[in-house]
């Protein structure tokens, strides 16, 4: 497996922003990018370097599958400073952590909100919640990035 290319960022190649929520209801944007060589999908959770991970094509495909099927999975990713990590994805079970208006959308649509979570050393962790309306956009942008990846 090739080394993840954190120094090869080229936002002119591909860049998208998606909106989710941190538990408690605050809006939080994340970025989806491709590496300069097009071989890695870079996911900047909460648009921060600290929570940026690189996904191979197979990891991106597994993430898309879990999100589309409302499934749970642990997706292998690479962090620039901490090496191999697992990005957890699964249905979000605590509607009270979403803004009030989004709670109603989840109830009426019958579709679950999905959660992405990443744990790093020294008790650094991040959870992001994507209710159905935001989840559709996340899936769409991830799929667009995946289709543009250079596959060996």
From TrEMBL:
Domain of life: Bacteria
Protein name: Uncharacterized protein
């Amino acid at each position: 497996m090739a080394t993840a290319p954190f120094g090869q960022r080229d936002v002119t190649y591909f860049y998208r922003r998606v909106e989710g929520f941190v538990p408690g209801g605050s809006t939080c944007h994340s970025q989806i990018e491709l590496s300069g060589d097009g071989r890695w999908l870079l996911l900047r959770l909460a648009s921060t370097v600290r929570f940026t991970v690189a996904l191979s094509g197979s990891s991106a495909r597994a993430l898309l599958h879990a999100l589309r099927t409302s499934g749970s999975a642990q997706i292998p990713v690479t962090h620039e400073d901490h090496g191999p990590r697992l990005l957890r994805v699964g249905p979000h079970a605590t509607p009270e952590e979403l803004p009030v208006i989004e709670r109603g959308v989840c109830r009426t649509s019958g579709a679950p909100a999905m959660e992405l979570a990443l744990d790093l050393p020294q008790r650094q962790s991040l959870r992001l919640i994507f209710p159905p309306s935001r989840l559709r956009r996340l899936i769409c942008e991830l799929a667009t990035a995946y289709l543009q990846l250079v596959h060996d």
